Amino acid sequence: MKRLIGNKNAHECIQRNGKYWTFKTNEKPEVEVNIEGQTKLIKPEEVSAQILMKLKQSVENVVRKPIKSIVLTVPAYFDEDQKKATIKAAEIAGLHVSELISEPSAAAYAYGFDQHKFSDTNLLVFDLGGGTLDVVIVKIKDGIFNVVAIGGDTLLGGRDFDNALMDYFVDIIEKKYKKKISENVKVMQKLLKECIDLKHMLTATEDAK
Ligand SMILES: Nc1ncnc2c1ncn2[C@@H]1O[C@H](COP(=O)(O)OP(=O)(O)OP(=O)(O)O)[C@@H](O)[C@H]1O
Ligand SMILES: [Mg+2]
């Protein structure tokens, strides 16, 4: 969803990645979902809103207080349209966005770089996520972060490693069983899960089954 939300070039993204997705999209872009047996087309911000609602509920269950306002993080390279669409998702979820900060700044906070001892520091944040690679330089002064340089690849993330493994195994399975599986959403979803598990195992070990 992050690759689609507020993205002016969504059609390019769909062309390149669509075949790996286990949901259907159109050019607008809208996502096809099944709600209580009915097929509906919803916008990426509405999908994100559902995720935010789920997160809000999980947090409320722990802190036992209603969550009304949030600090929202977005990739450093997000343009105004992408930011607006992300804020819209929060609004749909009934959340007020008190501040929007960039993901590398959030990472710097998480690692305690807002502490005084890191003042006057240039920090390189390398963030390879599920969907995107963000490499940024953050200037830290008196606990304030300023993103001064951005690089990376908005269409490279762990999901692409999964896709490469999927291509590899789909080919082997289709040849071995003489059956087409790439159109079968359930089978592809199962294979995707296996590929992700395999990828995680291969981070720690030389080989895995
Ligand atoms: N042990 C591991 N070995 C290899 N990859 C891993 C491991 N653990 C997690 N990953 C991969 O990291 C990715 C998730 O990273 P992260 O949680 O940083 O993403 P994200 O912040 O949700 O995504 P993005 O920033 O792109 O929106 C997934 O592709 C996941 O499979
Ligand atoms: Mg991330």
From TrEMBL:
One of its GO terms (molecular function) is ATP-dependent protein folding chaperone. It comes from the Eukaryota. The keyword ATP-binding applies. Keywords: ATP-binding, Nucleotide-binding. SUPFAM superfamilies: Actin-like ATPase domain. The keyword ATP-binding applies. Belongs to the heat shock protein 70 family. This is Heat shock protein 70. It comes from Acrobeloides nanus.
